[in-house]
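Hello again, I could really use a second opinion on something today. I've been staring at a protein lately and its backbone has me curious. Can you walk me through what the C-alpha coordinates say about the fold? Take your time with it, there's no hurry, and the full record follows here:
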Amino acid sequence: MKVHPSYFDWNRERLLSGTQLTIVIPAHNEEGCIHKTLTTLEEHVKTPHEIVVVNDHCRDGTVRIVKEFIQDHPNVQLVENLKDGCFANSITRGFEAVEEGAVVVVMADLSDDPKTIDTMYETLQKGHDIVCGSRYMPGGKRVSGPPVQGFFSRFVGTTTRLLTGIPTWDVSNAFKMYTKEVLDYIDIRDKWFAMSMEIAVKAHYKGFRITEVPTTWQGRTAGESSFSIFRVAPSYIKLYIWTVIMRVRSVFVARTLVVERKTP
Protein backbone atom coordinates (compact mmCIF):
# COMPACT_ATOMS: atom_id res chain seq x y z
CA MET A 1 0.00 0.00 0.00
CA LYS A 2 1.33 3.38 -0.96
CA VAL A 3 1.07 6.12 1.64
CA HIS A 4 -0.37 9.44 0.56
CA PRO A 5 2.19 12.25 1.07
CA SER A 6 -0.10 13.99 3.58
CA TYR A 7 -0.59 10.84 5.68
CA PHE A 8 1.54 12.07 8.57
CA ASP A 9 1.07 15.82 8.19
CA TRP A 10 -0.96 16.11 11.41
CA ASN A 11 1.87 14.44 13.29
CA ARG A 12 4.46 16.60 11.53
CA GLU A 13 2.84 19.76 12.89
CA ARG A 14 3.01 18.34 16.41
CA LEU A 15 6.58 17.18 15.87
CA LEU A 16 7.89 20.49 14.56
CA SER A 17 6.02 22.77 16.94
CA GLY A 18 7.76 21.64 20.08
CA THR A 19 10.57 20.11 18.45
CA GLN A 20 12.58 17.22 19.46
CA LEU A 21 15.73 15.96 17.80
CA THR A 22 17.43 12.78 18.94
CA ILE A 23 20.89 11.72 17.83
CA VAL A 24 21.38 7.94 17.93
CA ILE A 25 24.95 6.65 18.19
CA PRO A 26 25.67 2.91 17.94
CA ALA A 27 28.85 2.15 19.87
CA HIS A 28 30.96 -1.00 19.85
CA ASN A 29 34.38 -0.67 21.50
CA GLU A 30 34.74 3.05 20.78
CA GLU A 31 36.79 4.21 23.78
CA GLY A 32 39.32 5.83 21.45
CA CYS A 33 36.82 8.25 19.92
CA ILE A 34 33.48 8.34 21.75
CA HIS A 35 34.38 11.27 24.03
CA LYS A 36 35.55 13.35 21.08
CA THR A 37 32.41 12.45 19.15
CA LEU A 38 30.09 13.51 21.98
CA THR A 39 32.04 16.69 22.63
CA THR A 40 32.04 17.64 18.94
CA LEU A 41 28.30 17.02 18.63
CA GLU A 42 27.57 19.22 21.64
CA GLU A 43 29.77 21.93 20.16
CA HIS A 44 28.39 21.99 16.63
CA VAL A 45 24.73 20.93 16.82
CA LYS A 46 22.73 24.05 17.67
CA THR A 47 19.29 22.46 17.33
CA PRO A 48 17.95 21.47 20.79
CA HIS A 49 18.62 17.76 21.00
CA GLU A 50 19.12 14.61 23.01
CA ILE A 51 21.75 11.95 22.39
CA VAL A 52 21.17 8.24 22.78
CA VAL A 53 24.35 6.14 22.88
CA VAL A 54 23.67 2.44 22.35
CA ASN A 55 26.10 0.10 24.05
CA ASP A 56 26.53 -2.66 21.49
CA HIS A 57 28.28 -5.18 23.76
CA CYS A 58 31.37 -3.03 24.35
CA ARG A 59 34.31 -4.77 26.02
CA ASP A 60 36.49 -1.71 26.48
CA GLY A 61 36.06 1.58 28.35
CA THR A 62 33.30 3.01 26.15
CA VAL A 63 30.54 2.64 28.74
CA ARG A 64 32.64 4.23 31.48
CA ILE A 65 33.50 7.21 29.28
CA VAL A 66 29.87 7.76 28.28
CA LYS A 67 28.66 7.55 31.89
CA GLU A 68 31.25 10.14 32.92
CA PHE A 69 30.13 12.42 30.08
CA ILE A 70 26.48 12.06 31.10
CA GLN A 71 27.23 13.54 34.54
CA ASP A 72 27.71 16.97 32.98
CA HIS A 73 25.32 16.50 30.04
CA PRO A 74 21.80 15.51 31.13
CA ASN A 75 20.64 15.43 27.50
CA VAL A 76 22.75 12.29 26.91
CA GLN A 77 21.61 8.81 27.85
CA LEU A 78 23.07 5.33 27.53
CA VAL A 79 20.96 2.31 26.56
CA GLU A 80 21.87 -1.33 26.09
CA ASN A 81 21.49 -3.49 23.02
CA LEU A 82 20.22 -6.68 24.67
CA LYS A 83 19.98 -8.56 21.39
CA ASP A 84 22.87 -10.07 19.41
CA GLY A 85 25.61 -7.57 18.76
CA CYS A 86 25.29 -6.06 15.29
CA PHE A 87 24.77 -2.71 13.63
CA ALA A 88 21.06 -3.13 12.89
CA ASN A 89 20.12 -4.36 16.38
CA SER A 90 22.04 -1.49 17.91
CA ILE A 91 20.35 1.11 15.70
CA THR A 92 16.92 -0.42 16.25
CA ARG A 93 17.46 -0.26 20.02
CA GLY A 94 18.27 3.42 19.66
CA PHE A 95 15.10 4.00 17.66
CA GLU A 96 13.07 2.26 20.36
CA ALA A 97 14.41 4.71 22.95
CA VAL A 98 12.91 7.63 21.01
CA GLU A 99 9.23 8.42 21.53
CA GLU A 100 8.70 11.09 18.89
CA GLY A 101 10.34 13.78 16.82
CA ALA A 102 13.26 13.64 14.43
CA VAL A 103 15.95 10.97 14.65
CA VAL A 104 19.41 11.08 13.06
CA VAL A 105 21.96 8.26 13.10
CA VAL A 106 25.60 9.28 13.67
CA MET A 107 28.57 6.96 13.71
CA ALA A 108 30.59 6.82 16.92
CA ASP A 109 33.87 7.29 15.06
CA LEU A 110 32.88 10.84 13.97
CA SER A 111 33.04 9.88 10.29
CA ASP A 112 29.80 11.85 9.83
CA ASP A 113 30.00 15.64 9.85
CA PRO A 114 28.07 17.07 12.85
CA LYS A 115 27.84 20.44 11.08
CA THR A 116 25.41 18.87 8.61
CA ILE A 117 22.83 17.96 11.27
CA ASP A 118 21.31 21.43 11.68
CA THR A 119 20.89 21.66 7.89
CA MET A 120 19.26 18.21 7.83
CA TYR A 121 16.84 19.28 10.55
CA GLU A 122 15.94 22.52 8.77
CA THR A 123 15.32 20.52 5.58
CA LEU A 124 13.12 18.03 7.42
CA GLN A 125 10.99 20.92 8.66
CA LYS A 126 10.23 21.91 5.07
CA GLY A 127 8.04 18.87 4.61
CA HIS A 128 10.32 15.86 4.15
CA ASP A 129 10.17 12.54 5.95
CA ILE A 130 13.79 11.47 5.38
CA VAL A 131 16.85 13.63 4.77
CA CYS A 132 19.94 11.80 3.53
CA GLY A 133 23.45 13.03 4.14
CA SER A 134 24.99 12.64 0.68
CA ARG A 135 28.66 12.25 -0.14
CA TYR A 136 28.03 11.99 -3.87
CA MET A 137 25.78 14.94 -4.70
CA PRO A 138 27.31 18.32 -5.66
CA GLY A 139 28.98 19.75 -2.57
CA GLY A 140 29.36 16.36 -0.90
CA LYS A 141 32.69 14.66 -0.34
CA ARG A 142 34.22 11.39 0.80
CA VAL A 143 37.65 11.72 2.43
CA SER A 144 39.88 8.63 2.71
CA GLY A 145 38.48 5.28 3.80
CA PRO A 146 38.77 1.90 2.02
CA PRO A 147 38.65 2.39 -1.79
CA VAL A 148 36.58 -0.76 -2.33
CA GLN A 149 33.99 0.44 0.18
CA GLY A 150 33.88 3.82 -1.56
CA PHE A 151 33.41 2.28 -5.01
CA PHE A 152 30.69 -0.02 -3.70
CA SER A 153 28.68 2.75 -2.01
CA ARG A 154 28.94 5.07 -5.01
CA PHE A 155 27.90 2.29 -7.43
CA VAL A 156 24.92 1.31 -5.29
CA GLY A 157 23.85 4.92 -4.81
CA THR A 158 24.13 5.91 -8.46
CA THR A 159 22.45 2.85 -9.94
CA THR A 160 19.67 2.79 -7.35
CA ARG A 161 18.81 6.40 -8.15
CA LEU A 162 18.87 5.82 -11.90
CA LEU A 163 16.81 2.63 -11.68
CA THR A 164 14.22 3.70 -9.11
CA GLY A 165 14.17 7.49 -9.11
CA ILE A 166 14.79 7.65 -5.36
CA PRO A 167 15.91 11.27 -4.78
CA THR A 168 19.38 10.64 -3.33
CA TRP A 169 22.74 9.68 -4.81
CA ASP A 170 23.86 8.09 -1.54
CA VAL A 171 21.13 5.71 -0.44
CA SER A 172 23.53 3.38 1.41
CA ASN A 173 24.89 6.07 3.73
CA ALA A 174 23.72 5.48 7.32
CA PHE A 175 23.86 9.22 8.03
CA LYS A 176 20.15 9.98 7.59
CA MET A 177 17.52 11.90 9.53
CA TYR A 178 14.01 10.47 9.86
CA THR A 179 10.72 11.39 11.41
CA LYS A 180 9.92 8.84 14.12
CA GLU A 181 6.61 8.08 12.40
CA VAL A 182 8.46 6.76 9.33
CA LEU A 183 10.62 4.49 11.46
CA ASP A 184 7.55 3.12 13.21
CA TYR A 185 5.85 2.48 9.87
CA ILE A 186 8.68 0.69 8.03
CA ASP A 187 9.28 -3.01 8.68
CA ILE A 188 13.07 -3.26 9.10
CA ARG A 189 14.47 -6.73 8.42
CA ASP A 190 18.16 -6.38 7.57
CA LYS A 191 20.62 -7.10 10.39
CA TRP A 192 23.65 -5.26 9.04
CA PHE A 193 24.60 -1.98 7.41
CA ALA A 194 22.09 -2.37 4.57
CA MET A 195 19.28 -1.47 6.96
CA SER A 196 19.70 2.26 6.27
CA MET A 197 19.28 1.62 2.54
CA GLU A 198 16.34 -0.67 3.29
CA ILE A 199 14.49 2.03 5.25
CA ALA A 200 14.99 4.62 2.51
CA VAL A 201 13.99 2.33 -0.37
CA LYS A 202 10.88 1.01 1.38
CA ALA A 203 9.90 4.54 2.39
CA HIS A 204 10.34 5.67 -1.23
CA TYR A 205 7.99 2.98 -2.51
CA LYS A 206 5.49 3.85 0.23
CA GLY A 207 5.34 7.43 -1.00
CA PHE A 208 7.24 9.18 1.79
CA ARG A 209 9.12 12.35 0.92
CA ILE A 210 12.89 11.94 0.69
CA THR A 211 15.62 14.43 -0.12
CA GLU A 212 19.35 14.88 0.43
CA VAL A 213 21.86 17.48 1.57
CA PRO A 214 25.61 17.46 0.92
CA THR A 215 27.92 16.22 3.65
CA THR A 216 31.56 15.27 4.09
CA TRP A 217 32.40 11.76 5.23
CA GLN A 218 35.76 11.21 6.92
CA GLY A 219 37.39 7.79 7.17
CA ARG A 220 37.87 6.37 10.66
CA THR A 221 40.96 7.65 12.51
CA ALA A 222 40.55 5.74 15.79
CA GLY A 223 39.27 2.32 16.79
CA GLU A 224 38.32 -0.52 14.47
CA SER A 225 35.44 -0.54 12.03
CA SER A 226 32.93 -3.40 12.16
CA PHE A 227 32.16 -2.87 8.47
CA SER A 228 33.24 -5.76 6.23
CA ILE A 229 32.40 -5.64 2.54
CA PHE A 230 32.37 -9.44 2.38
CA ARG A 231 29.97 -9.74 5.30
CA VAL A 232 27.51 -7.05 4.23
CA ALA A 233 27.62 -7.55 0.45
CA PRO A 234 25.01 -10.38 0.44
CA SER A 235 22.52 -8.14 2.28
CA TYR A 236 23.07 -5.27 -0.14
CA ILE A 237 22.81 -7.53 -3.17
CA LYS A 238 19.58 -9.09 -1.91
CA LEU A 239 18.09 -5.66 -1.19
CA TYR A 240 19.36 -4.31 -4.52
CA ILE A 241 17.64 -7.12 -6.44
CA TRP A 242 14.43 -6.57 -4.48
CA THR A 243 14.59 -2.86 -5.29
CA VAL A 244 14.95 -3.50 -9.02
CA ILE A 245 12.10 -6.04 -8.99
CA MET A 246 9.84 -3.55 -7.24
CA ARG A 247 10.72 -0.92 -9.84
CA VAL A 248 9.98 -3.27 -12.74
CA ARG A 249 6.72 -4.31 -11.12
CA SER A 250 5.62 -0.70 -10.58
CA VAL A 251 6.38 0.16 -14.23
CA PHE A 252 4.46 -2.90 -15.42
CA VAL A 253 1.44 -2.04 -13.26
CA ALA A 254 1.48 1.58 -14.45
CA ARG A 255 1.58 0.55 -18.11
CA THR A 256 -1.19 -1.98 -17.57
CA LEU A 257 -3.42 0.71 -16.07
CA VAL A 258 -2.74 3.00 -19.03
CA VAL A 259 -3.69 0.25 -21.48
CA GLU A 260 -6.87 -0.54 -19.55
CA ARG A 261 -7.92 3.11 -19.56
CA LYS A 262 -7.40 3.37 -23.32
CA THR A 263 -9.34 0.18 -24.01
CA PRO A 264 -12.97 0.95 -24.92
Notes: The chain is about 45% helix and 15% strand. The longest helix spans residues 229-262.
